Amino acid sequence: MGNEKELLNVSKATIGRLPAYHRYLQEKLAAGERTVSSTAIAEDLHLNAVQVRKDLSAIAREAGKPKLGFAVADLIADIDRFLGYDNLNDAVLVGVGGLGSALAGYSGFKNYGLNIVAAFDADPARVGTSVGGVKVFPAEELARLVRRLNVLIGIVAVPREAAQGVADELIKGGVRAIWNFAPVHLNVPADIAVKNEDMAASLAILSQRLAEILNSEK
Amino acid sequence: MGNEKELLNVSKATIGRLPAYHRYLQEKLAAGERTVSSTAIAEDLHLNAVQVRKDLSAIAREAGKPKLGFAVADLIADIDRFLGYDNLNDAVLVGVGGLGSALAGYSGFKNYGLNIVAAFDADPARVGTSVGGVKVFPAEELARLVRRLNVLIGIVAVPREAAQGVADELIKGGVRAIWNFAPVHLNVPADIAVKNEDMAASLAILSQRLAEILNSEK
DNA sequence: GTTCATTCGATATTTTTTTATCGATAAAAT
DNA sequence: ATTTTATCGATAAAAAAATATCGAATGAAC
Protein backbone atom coordinates (compact mmCIF):
# COMPACT_ATOMS: atom_id res chain seq x y z
CA MET A 1 0.00 0.00 0.00
CA GLY A 2 1.45 3.29 -1.09
CA ASN A 3 -0.23 5.66 1.30
CA GLU A 4 2.21 5.62 4.17
CA LYS A 5 3.29 9.13 3.41
CA GLU A 6 -0.27 10.30 3.09
CA LEU A 7 -1.25 8.97 6.47
CA LEU A 8 1.26 11.23 8.11
CA ASN A 9 0.32 14.53 6.56
CA VAL A 10 -3.41 14.38 6.80
CA SER A 11 -4.84 15.60 10.05
CA LYS A 12 -7.55 13.86 11.95
CA ALA A 13 -9.78 16.89 11.52
CA THR A 14 -9.38 16.67 7.78
CA ILE A 15 -10.18 12.98 7.72
CA GLY A 16 -13.34 13.70 9.63
CA ARG A 17 -14.45 16.12 6.94
CA LEU A 18 -13.64 13.96 3.94
CA PRO A 19 -16.87 11.98 4.04
CA ALA A 20 -18.87 15.19 3.96
CA TYR A 21 -16.96 16.35 0.90
CA HIS A 22 -17.51 12.95 -0.63
CA ARG A 23 -21.27 13.16 -0.26
CA TYR A 24 -21.34 16.73 -1.44
CA LEU A 25 -19.29 15.93 -4.49
CA GLN A 26 -21.52 13.03 -5.39
CA GLU A 27 -24.50 15.33 -5.29
CA LYS A 28 -22.70 17.68 -7.63
CA LEU A 29 -21.73 14.86 -9.92
CA ALA A 30 -25.32 13.66 -10.02
CA ALA A 31 -26.35 17.20 -10.88
CA GLY A 32 -24.03 17.05 -13.86
CA GLU A 33 -21.42 19.50 -12.65
CA ARG A 34 -17.91 18.76 -13.84
CA THR A 35 -15.93 21.11 -11.67
CA VAL A 36 -16.45 22.80 -8.34
CA SER A 37 -14.55 25.54 -6.57
CA SER A 38 -13.38 25.53 -2.98
CA THR A 39 -15.34 28.72 -2.53
CA ALA A 40 -18.58 27.04 -3.50
CA ILE A 41 -17.95 23.99 -1.34
CA ALA A 42 -17.09 26.16 1.62
CA GLU A 43 -20.22 28.21 1.26
CA ASP A 44 -22.53 25.22 0.97
CA LEU A 45 -20.91 23.26 3.75
CA HIS A 46 -20.42 26.24 6.04
CA LEU A 47 -16.68 25.94 6.09
CA ASN A 48 -13.78 28.21 5.32
CA ALA A 49 -12.59 28.17 1.72
CA VAL A 50 -8.93 27.98 2.67
CA GLN A 51 -9.66 25.04 4.87
CA VAL A 52 -11.42 23.28 2.04
CA ARG A 53 -8.50 23.88 -0.29
CA LYS A 54 -6.08 22.56 2.28
CA ASP A 55 -8.16 19.49 2.95
CA LEU A 56 -8.52 18.71 -0.70
CA SER A 57 -4.95 19.34 -1.62
CA ALA A 58 -3.93 16.92 1.10
CA ILE A 59 -5.53 14.02 -0.72
CA ALA A 60 -5.99 15.16 -4.30
CA ARG A 61 -3.68 14.00 -7.03
CA GLU A 62 -4.62 16.66 -9.53
CA ALA A 63 -4.33 20.27 -8.48
CA GLY A 64 -7.26 22.61 -8.78
CA LYS A 65 -7.34 24.98 -11.70
CA PRO A 66 -7.68 28.73 -11.38
CA LYS A 67 -11.07 30.01 -12.39
CA LEU A 68 -12.49 26.49 -12.67
CA GLY A 69 -11.76 24.74 -9.41
CA PHE A 70 -11.46 21.00 -8.92
CA ALA A 71 -12.62 18.16 -11.11
CA VAL A 72 -15.54 16.59 -9.27
CA ALA A 73 -15.03 13.04 -10.49
CA ASP A 74 -11.32 13.09 -9.74
CA LEU A 75 -11.88 14.30 -6.23
CA ILE A 76 -14.39 11.58 -5.53
CA ALA A 77 -11.92 9.00 -6.74
CA ASP A 78 -9.21 10.53 -4.58
CA ILE A 79 -11.34 10.38 -1.46
CA ASP A 80 -12.40 6.83 -2.28
CA ARG A 81 -8.80 5.87 -2.56
CA PHE A 82 -7.65 7.66 0.53
CA LEU A 83 -10.44 6.44 2.74
CA GLY A 84 -10.28 2.96 1.35
CA TYR A 85 -13.85 3.06 0.13
CA ASP A 86 -12.83 0.98 -2.81
CA ASN A 87 -11.56 -2.01 -0.86
CA LEU A 88 -13.95 -3.52 1.63
CA ASN A 89 -13.06 -4.16 5.24
CA ASP A 90 -14.81 -7.07 6.87
CA ALA A 91 -16.55 -6.51 10.17
CA VAL A 92 -18.78 -8.37 12.57
CA LEU A 93 -21.79 -6.89 14.29
CA VAL A 94 -22.63 -7.83 17.86
CA GLY A 95 -26.20 -7.25 19.00
CA VAL A 96 -29.14 -7.21 16.60
CA GLY A 97 -31.68 -5.40 18.72
CA GLY A 98 -33.16 -2.12 17.53
CA LEU A 99 -29.96 -0.32 16.74
CA GLY A 100 -28.06 -3.38 15.64
CA SER A 101 -30.60 -4.41 13.07
CA ALA A 102 -30.80 -0.86 11.82
CA LEU A 103 -27.06 -0.98 11.26
CA ALA A 104 -27.24 -4.39 9.60
CA GLY A 105 -29.98 -3.13 7.33
CA TYR A 106 -28.12 -0.04 6.27
CA SER A 107 -26.84 -1.00 2.88
CA GLY A 108 -24.86 2.20 2.63
CA PHE A 109 -21.96 0.83 4.64
CA LYS A 110 -20.68 -0.98 1.60
CA ASN A 111 -20.14 2.40 0.02
CA TYR A 112 -17.98 3.30 2.95
CA GLY A 113 -15.79 0.26 2.65
CA LEU A 114 -17.43 -1.72 5.41
CA ASN A 115 -18.71 -5.22 4.87
CA ILE A 116 -20.60 -6.88 7.69
CA VAL A 117 -19.94 -10.60 7.35
CA ALA A 118 -21.63 -11.95 10.45
CA ALA A 119 -23.78 -10.89 13.37
CA PHE A 120 -24.05 -12.24 16.90
CA ASP A 121 -26.69 -12.09 19.59
CA ALA A 122 -27.19 -13.57 23.02
CA ASP A 123 -30.93 -14.03 22.50
CA PRO A 124 -31.61 -17.57 21.21
CA ALA A 125 -34.75 -16.32 19.46
CA ARG A 126 -32.62 -14.18 17.18
CA VAL A 127 -29.92 -16.75 16.52
CA GLY A 128 -30.30 -18.42 13.18
CA THR A 129 -32.31 -15.59 11.67
CA SER A 130 -31.00 -13.22 9.10
CA VAL A 131 -30.96 -9.47 9.57
CA GLY A 132 -30.43 -7.26 6.58
CA GLY A 133 -28.88 -10.19 4.77
CA VAL A 134 -26.50 -10.97 7.61
CA LYS A 135 -26.71 -14.27 9.47
CA VAL A 136 -27.01 -14.16 13.25
CA PHE A 137 -24.83 -16.52 15.29
CA PRO A 138 -24.91 -17.32 19.00
CA ALA A 139 -22.85 -15.08 21.21
CA GLU A 140 -20.88 -18.04 22.52
CA GLU A 141 -19.27 -18.50 19.13
CA LEU A 142 -18.10 -14.91 18.91
CA ALA A 143 -14.39 -15.20 19.62
CA ARG A 144 -13.99 -18.47 17.78
CA LEU A 145 -15.79 -17.37 14.65
CA VAL A 146 -14.16 -13.96 14.54
CA ARG A 147 -10.81 -15.65 14.59
CA ARG A 148 -11.78 -18.08 11.89
CA LEU A 149 -13.16 -15.30 9.67
CA ASN A 150 -10.07 -13.25 10.32
CA VAL A 151 -12.08 -10.11 10.96
CA LEU A 152 -10.39 -6.99 12.30
CA ILE A 153 -13.35 -4.73 13.00
CA GLY A 154 -16.10 -5.31 15.54
CA ILE A 155 -19.29 -3.28 15.89
CA VAL A 156 -20.76 -3.25 19.37
CA ALA A 157 -24.50 -2.60 19.47
CA VAL A 158 -25.50 -4.34 22.67
CA PRO A 159 -26.95 -2.93 25.88
CA ARG A 160 -24.66 -1.03 28.19
CA GLU A 161 -24.19 -3.86 30.63
CA ALA A 162 -23.02 -6.32 28.01
CA ALA A 163 -20.66 -4.07 26.09
CA GLN A 164 -17.46 -4.63 28.02
CA GLY A 165 -17.85 -8.40 27.88
CA VAL A 166 -18.44 -8.26 24.16
CA ALA A 167 -15.40 -6.08 23.65
CA ASP A 168 -13.29 -8.58 25.57
CA GLU A 169 -14.53 -11.42 23.40
CA LEU A 170 -13.95 -9.48 20.21
CA ILE A 171 -10.39 -8.76 21.22
CA LYS A 172 -9.89 -12.38 22.19
CA GLY A 173 -10.97 -13.26 18.66
CA GLY A 174 -8.35 -10.96 17.19
CA VAL A 175 -10.30 -7.80 16.44
CA ARG A 176 -8.15 -4.67 16.38
CA ALA A 177 -10.75 -1.93 15.99
CA ILE A 178 -14.05 -1.52 17.78
CA TRP A 179 -16.91 0.73 16.77
CA ASN A 180 -18.83 1.17 19.96
CA PHE A 181 -22.47 2.23 19.96
CA ALA A 182 -23.09 1.35 23.59
CA PRO A 183 -23.10 4.27 25.98
CA VAL A 184 -20.21 3.08 28.10
CA HIS A 185 -16.52 3.54 28.20
CA LEU A 186 -14.77 0.38 27.06
CA ASN A 187 -11.62 -0.72 28.74
CA VAL A 188 -9.23 -2.04 26.14
CA PRO A 189 -5.48 -2.44 25.62
CA ALA A 190 -3.68 0.51 24.10
CA ASP A 191 -3.13 -1.19 20.77
CA ILE A 192 -6.83 -1.57 20.06
CA ALA A 193 -8.60 1.30 18.32
CA VAL A 194 -11.95 2.27 19.75
CA LYS A 195 -14.31 4.77 18.24
CA ASN A 196 -17.23 5.63 20.43
CA GLU A 197 -20.36 6.62 18.58
CA ASP A 198 -21.18 8.94 21.38
CA MET A 199 -24.71 10.16 20.86
CA ALA A 200 -24.60 11.96 24.16
CA ALA A 201 -21.59 13.95 23.03
CA SER A 202 -23.26 14.91 19.78
CA LEU A 203 -26.36 15.89 21.61
CA ALA A 204 -24.35 17.96 24.05
CA ILE A 205 -22.75 19.89 21.25
CA LEU A 206 -26.05 20.40 19.49
CA SER A 207 -27.75 21.63 22.65
CA GLN A 208 -24.94 24.01 23.29
CA ARG A 209 -25.22 25.46 19.83
CA LEU A 210 -28.95 25.74 20.22
CA ALA A 211 -28.45 27.60 23.46
CA GLU A 212 -25.99 29.96 21.79
CA ILE A 213 -28.39 30.66 18.97
CA LEU A 214 -31.30 31.33 21.27
CA ASN A 215 -29.11 33.47 23.47
CA SER A 216 -27.66 35.54 20.67
CA GLU A 217 -30.98 36.48 19.20
CA LYS A 218 -32.45 38.06 22.23
CA MET B 1 -30.16 31.23 33.45
CA GLY B 2 -26.80 31.94 35.02
CA ASN B 3 -24.49 30.12 32.68
CA GLU B 4 -23.78 32.85 30.17
CA LYS B 5 -20.26 33.17 31.43
CA GLU B 6 -19.75 29.44 31.38
CA LEU B 7 -20.81 29.14 27.78
CA LEU B 8 -17.99 31.37 26.72
CA ASN B 9 -15.09 29.72 28.50
CA VAL B 10 -15.83 26.12 27.78
CA SER B 11 -14.45 24.87 24.52
CA LYS B 12 -16.32 22.72 22.11
CA ALA B 13 -13.72 20.01 22.54
CA THR B 14 -14.34 20.01 26.27
CA ILE B 15 -18.09 19.82 25.83
CA GLY B 16 -17.61 16.81 23.62
CA ARG B 17 -15.74 15.05 26.40
CA LEU B 18 -18.11 15.86 29.22
CA PRO B 19 -20.55 13.03 28.50
CA ALA B 20 -17.71 10.54 28.67
CA TYR B 21 -16.68 11.90 32.06
CA HIS B 22 -20.29 11.73 33.12
CA ARG B 23 -20.61 8.07 32.30
CA TYR B 24 -17.27 7.27 33.85
CA LEU B 25 -18.15 9.07 37.05
CA GLN B 26 -21.44 7.27 37.31
CA GLU B 27 -19.63 3.98 37.07
CA LYS B 28 -17.35 5.10 39.87
CA LEU B 29 -20.26 6.25 41.96
CA ALA B 30 -21.99 2.93 41.46
CA ALA B 31 -18.78 1.23 42.56
CA GLY B 32 -18.98 3.19 45.77
CA GLU B 33 -16.03 5.50 45.20
CA ARG B 34 -16.36 8.92 46.75
CA THR B 35 -13.48 10.70 45.10
CA VAL B 36 -11.47 10.30 41.95
CA SER B 37 -8.27 11.89 40.73
CA SER B 38 -7.64 13.44 37.34
CA THR B 39 -4.75 11.05 37.00
CA ALA B 40 -7.01 8.04 37.35
CA ILE B 41 -9.63 9.41 34.96
CA ALA B 42 -6.98 10.21 32.41
CA GLU B 43 -5.49 6.77 32.58
CA ASP B 44 -8.80 4.95 32.25
CA LEU B 45 -10.13 7.18 29.50
CA HIS B 46 -6.84 7.42 27.65
CA LEU B 47 -6.56 11.15 28.03
CA ASN B 48 -4.00 13.52 29.42
CA ALA B 49 -4.33 14.32 33.12
CA VAL B 50 -3.84 18.03 32.66
CA GLN B 51 -6.56 18.06 30.07
CA VAL B 52 -8.91 16.30 32.42
CA ARG B 53 -8.17 18.80 35.17
CA LYS B 54 -8.78 21.67 32.82
CA ASP B 55 -12.01 20.22 31.52
CA LEU B 56 -13.30 19.60 34.99
CA SER B 57 -12.25 22.90 36.43
CA ALA B 58 -14.13 24.60 33.60
CA ILE B 59 -17.45 23.31 34.89
CA ALA B 60 -16.86 22.26 38.49
CA ARG B 61 -18.00 24.41 41.37
CA GLU B 62 -15.83 22.78 43.97
CA ALA B 63 -12.12 22.54 43.38
CA GLY B 64 -10.30 19.25 43.56
CA LYS B 65 -8.37 18.46 46.68
CA PRO B 66 -4.72 17.50 46.76
CA LYS B 67 -4.11 13.84 47.45
CA LEU B 68 -7.82 13.03 47.12
CA GLY B 69 -8.99 14.43 43.82
CA PHE B 70 -12.54 15.42 42.98
CA ALA B 71 -15.80 14.50 44.67
CA VAL B 72 -17.55 12.12 42.29
CA ALA B 73 -21.11 13.06 43.16
CA ASP B 74 -20.41 16.78 42.92
CA LEU B 75 -18.83 16.41 39.52
CA ILE B 76 -21.80 14.49 38.20
CA ALA B 77 -24.11 17.19 39.43
CA ASP B 78 -21.94 19.85 37.83
CA ILE B 79 -21.99 18.13 34.46
CA ASP B 80 -25.74 17.58 34.74
CA ARG B 81 -26.20 21.23 35.39
CA PHE B 82 -23.85 22.42 32.69
CA LEU B 83 -25.18 20.12 30.00
CA GLY B 84 -28.76 20.67 31.01
CA TYR B 85 -29.33 17.03 31.76
CA ASP B 86 -31.62 18.04 34.56
CA ASN B 87 -34.10 19.98 32.48
CA LEU B 88 -35.62 18.17 29.54
CA ASN B 89 -35.66 19.54 26.01
CA ASP B 90 -38.56 18.47 23.86
CA ALA B 91 -37.83 17.03 20.45
CA VAL B 92 -39.67 15.41 17.58
CA LEU B 93 -38.44 12.41 15.66
CA VAL B 94 -39.00 12.12 11.93
CA GLY B 95 -38.80 8.67 10.42
CA VAL B 96 -39.52 5.52 12.40
CA GLY B 97 -37.85 2.96 10.21
CA GLY B 98 -35.02 0.85 11.55
CA LEU B 99 -32.88 3.61 12.93
CA GLY B 100 -35.76 5.85 13.92
CA SER B 101 -37.47 3.23 16.02
CA ALA B 102 -34.18 2.32 17.62
CA LEU B 103 -33.82 5.95 18.63
CA ALA B 104 -37.40 6.15 19.87
CA GLY B 105 -36.86 3.01 21.89
CA TYR B 106 -33.71 4.21 23.52
CA SER B 107 -34.89 5.27 26.93
CA GLY B 108 -31.49 6.66 27.78
CA PHE B 109 -32.15 9.95 26.02
CA LYS B 110 -34.14 11.16 28.99
CA ASN B 111 -30.93 10.97 30.98
CA TYR B 112 -29.35 13.26 28.47
CA GLY B 113 -32.07 15.86 28.72
CA LEU B 114 -33.88 14.88 25.56
CA ASN B 115 -37.57 14.13 25.53
CA ILE B 116 -39.10 12.85 22.32
CA VAL B 117 -42.69 14.05 22.33
CA ALA B 118 -43.88 12.96 18.91
CA ALA B 119 -42.78 11.00 15.88
CA PHE B 120 -43.67 11.34 12.21
CA ASP B 121 -43.57 9.03 9.25
CA ALA B 122 -44.65 9.14 5.65
CA ASP B 123 -45.71 5.50 5.62
CA PRO B 124 -49.44 5.25 6.40
CA ALA B 125 -48.90 1.80 7.84
CA ARG B 126 -46.80 3.28 10.59
CA VAL B 127 -48.99 6.26 11.32
CA GLY B 128 -51.14 5.79 14.38
CA THR B 129 -48.86 3.22 15.92
CA SER B 130 -46.67 3.82 18.90
CA VAL B 131 -42.92 3.31 18.86
CA GLY B 132 -41.07 3.15 22.13
CA GLY B 133 -43.93 4.93 23.78
CA VAL B 134 -43.99 7.72 21.19
CA LYS B 135 -47.00 8.22 18.96
CA VAL B 136 -46.47 8.34 15.21
CA PHE B 137 -48.19 11.08 13.22
CA PRO B 138 -48.52 11.54 9.46
CA ALA B 139 -45.74 13.45 7.80
CA GLU B 140 -48.18 16.00 6.44
CA GLU B 141 -48.83 17.29 9.93
CA LEU B 142 -45.15 17.83 10.69
CA ALA B 143 -44.81 21.58 10.44
CA ARG B 144 -48.20 22.31 11.93
CA LEU B 145 -47.78 20.01 14.92
CA VAL B 146 -44.22 21.06 15.61
CA ARG B 147 -45.38 24.62 15.81
CA ARG B 148 -48.26 23.75 18.07
CA LEU B 149 -46.02 21.73 20.39
CA ASN B 150 -43.46 24.50 20.37
CA VAL B 151 -40.60 22.09 19.84
CA LEU B 152 -37.13 23.38 19.07
CA ILE B 153 -35.24 20.19 18.26
CA GLY B 154 -35.89 17.85 15.36
CA ILE B 155 -34.31 14.46 14.82
CA VAL B 156 -34.04 13.39 11.20
CA ALA B 157 -33.95 9.63 10.69
CA VAL B 158 -35.38 9.29 7.21
CA PRO B 159 -33.80 7.99 4.01
CA ARG B 160 -31.30 10.18 2.26
CA GLU B 161 -33.68 11.37 -0.42
CA ALA B 162 -36.26 12.62 2.05
CA ALA B 163 -33.97 14.37 4.49
CA GLN B 164 -33.81 17.82 2.95
CA GLY B 165 -37.57 18.03 2.62
CA VAL B 166 -38.01 17.01 6.23
CA ALA B 167 -35.49 19.58 7.36
CA ASP B 168 -37.38 22.26 5.47
CA GLU B 169 -40.64 21.26 7.13
CA LEU B 170 -39.06 21.18 10.56
CA ILE B 171 -37.71 24.66 10.09
CA LYS B 172 -41.05 25.82 8.81
CA GLY B 173 -42.52 24.52 12.04
CA GLY B 174 -40.07 26.56 14.09
CA VAL B 175 -37.37 24.07 14.93
CA ARG B 176 -33.98 25.66 15.62
CA ALA B 177 -31.74 22.63 15.96
CA ILE B 178 -31.57 19.51 13.82
CA TRP B 179 -29.93 16.26 14.71
CA ASN B 180 -29.35 14.64 11.35
CA PHE B 181 -28.85 10.90 11.01
CA ALA B 182 -29.32 10.83 7.25
CA PRO B 183 -26.15 10.62 5.22
CA VAL B 184 -26.61 13.88 3.39
CA HIS B 185 -25.62 17.44 3.81
CA LEU B 186 -28.63 19.54 4.79
CA ASN B 187 -29.03 23.00 3.43
CA VAL B 188 -30.30 25.27 6.15
CA PRO B 189 -30.22 28.94 7.09
CA ALA B 190 -27.27 30.07 9.15
CA ASP B 191 -29.27 30.50 12.33
CA ILE B 192 -30.28 26.86 12.51
CA ALA B 193 -27.95 24.47 14.32
CA VAL B 194 -27.30 21.19 12.56
CA LYS B 195 -25.38 18.31 14.04
CA ASN B 196 -24.70 15.54 11.60
CA GLU B 197 -24.42 12.12 13.11
CA ASP B 198 -21.91 11.25 10.51
CA MET B 199 -21.33 7.52 10.68
CA ALA B 200 -19.10 7.70 7.65
CA ALA B 201 -16.85 10.19 9.38
CA SER B 202 -16.57 8.06 12.48
CA LEU B 203 -15.83 5.06 10.38
CA ALA B 204 -13.19 6.97 8.47
CA ILE B 205 -11.42 7.91 11.65
CA LEU B 206 -11.64 4.39 13.01
CA SER B 207 -10.28 2.88 9.83
CA GLN B 208 -7.44 5.33 9.83
CA ARG B 209 -6.52 4.43 13.37
CA LEU B 210 -6.73 0.77 12.53
CA ALA B 211 -4.41 1.32 9.60
CA GLU B 212 -1.96 3.17 11.84
CA ILE B 213 -2.00 0.40 14.40
CA LEU B 214 -1.45 -2.30 11.82
CA ASN B 215 1.26 -0.25 10.20
CA SER B 216 3.13 0.54 13.38
CA GLU B 217 3.38 -3.02 14.47
CA LYS B 218 5.11 -4.38 11.46
C1' DG C 1 -5.38 40.75 -27.79
C1' DT C 2 -6.28 43.07 -23.36
C1' DT C 3 -8.60 43.41 -19.36
C1' DC C 4 -11.18 41.59 -15.62
C1' DA C 5 -12.72 38.50 -12.25
C1' DT C 6 -12.17 34.20 -10.11
C1' DT C 7 -9.71 30.79 -8.25
C1' DC C 8 -5.64 28.56 -6.95
C1' DG C 9 -1.46 27.40 -3.95
C1' DA C 10 1.91 29.01 -0.74
C1' DT C 11 3.11 31.36 3.18
C1' DA C 12 2.14 33.84 7.34
C1' DT C 13 -0.78 34.74 11.24
C1' DT C 14 -4.06 33.81 14.61
C1' DT C 15 -6.66 30.95 17.39
C1' DT C 16 -7.58 26.81 19.67
C1' DT C 17 -6.26 22.75 21.88
C1' DT C 18 -3.12 19.87 24.07
C1' DT C 19 0.75 18.93 26.90
C1' DA C 20 4.62 20.09 30.14
C1' DT C 21 6.42 22.19 34.28
C1' DC C 22 6.37 23.61 38.90
C1' DG C 23 5.32 25.41 43.46
C1' DA C 24 1.65 24.73 46.87
C1' DT C 25 -1.33 21.86 49.63
C1' DA C 26 -3.06 18.44 52.39
C1' DA C 27 -3.78 13.47 53.45
C1' DA C 28 -1.16 9.56 54.88
C1' DA C 29 2.85 7.43 56.80
C1' DT C 30 6.57 7.48 59.89
C1' DA D 1 5.38 16.52 64.82
C1' DT D 2 7.74 15.72 60.66
C1' DT D 3 8.35 13.73 56.38
C1' DT D 4 6.68 11.77 52.36
C1' DT D 5 3.78 11.56 48.46
C1' DA D 6 -0.15 12.18 45.56
C1' DT D 7 -2.62 15.58 43.86
C1' DC D 8 -4.06 20.11 42.67
C1' DG D 9 -4.16 24.76 40.08
C1' DA D 10 -1.67 28.12 37.49
C1' DT D 11 1.31 29.37 34.11
C1' DA D 12 4.12 28.39 30.17
C1' DA D 13 5.28 25.94 26.05
C1' DA D 14 4.21 23.19 22.15
C1' DA D 15 1.34 21.32 18.75
C1' DA D 16 -2.55 21.36 15.88
C1' DA D 17 -6.06 23.59 13.43
C1' DA D 18 -8.28 27.39 11.40
C1' DT D 19 -8.05 31.68 9.00
C1' DA D 20 -6.01 35.64 6.50
C1' DT D 21 -3.15 37.53 2.87
C1' DC D 22 -1.17 37.80 -1.56
C1' DG D 23 1.03 36.98 -5.99
C1' DA D 24 0.23 33.99 -9.97
C1' DA D 25 -2.56 31.65 -13.24
C1' DT D 26 -6.19 31.29 -16.40
C1' DG D 27 -10.74 31.19 -18.37
C1' DA D 28 -14.26 34.49 -19.77
C1' DA D 29 -15.75 39.05 -21.24
C1' DC D 30 -14.92 42.79 -23.89
Structure description:
- Two copies of one chain form a homodimer.
- Chain A has nine helices and nine strands.
- By secondary structure, the first copy, chain A, is α/β, with parallel strands linked by helices.
- In chain A, the strands form two sheets. Chain A has a seven-stranded mixed beta sheet with strand order 5-6-4-3-7-8-9. Chain A has a two-stranded antiparallel ribbon with strand order 1-2.
- In chain A, strand 3 (89-94), helix 6 (98-105) and strand 4 form a beta-alpha-beta unit.
- In chain A, helix 7 (142-149) packs across helix 8 (160-172).
- The longest helix of chain A has 19 residues, at 12-30.
- The relative contact order of chain A is 0.09.
- At the A-B interface, helix 2, helix 6, strand 9 and helix 9 of A face helix 2, helix 6, strand 9 and helix 9 of B.
- The first copy, chain A, binds a DNA duplex (30 and 30 nucleotides) through helix 2 and helix 4.
Mind telling me the C-alpha Rg of chain A? 20 Å
Structural class of chain A: alpha/beta
Helix content of chain A: 40-55%
Query: N-to-C terminal Cα separation of chain A, in Å?
Result: 55 Å
Total number of beta strands of chain A: 9
Largest sheet of chain A: 7 strands, mixed
Indicate the proportion of strand residues of chain A.
Answer: 15-25%
Mean pLDDT across residues of chain A: 92
Strand order of the largest sheet of chain A: 5-6-4-3-7-8-9
Poorly predicted ranges of chain A? 1-5
Largest interface: A-B, 66 and 66 residues
Estimate the global geometry of chain A from the Cα principal axes.
Answer: globular
Oligomeric state of the chains present here: homodimer
Q: How do the helices and strands follow one another from N- to C-terminus of chain A?
A: HHEHHEHEHEEEHEHEEH
Helical stretch count of chain A?
Answer: 9
